[in-house]
Amino acid sequence: MIKLALFAVGFFFLSIFQTSFLVHYSIYGRVLNIILVIVVLYNLFESRDKKTGIYIAILGGFFLDVFSNTFIGLNIIIMLLTSVAIKIGLKKYVRIPLAEKD
Asked: Which UniProt keywords are given for this protein, alphabetically ordered (predicted)?
């Protein structure tokens, strides 16, 4: 619970930073989405069975939706689908020999 609260505060400040400051530093018209990078990295390095990454994806998508001019829920769906795809991909197709038990 405390982890989610810290991520909520962090995503709040990162989304403000991203929408107010990073907009001026675009590369080929695209701005770096820091929250998406954090969500992807967290889901990649989290244990396969834990669901905290999905909740963090919803939080990140919510804060991106609040500070954007697109439809409400679009970023939540994108982050949630990305998180679920990573979880399913890691569970079905990636085997780590040291993590598996005989």
From this structure: Membrane, Transmembrane, Transmembrane helix
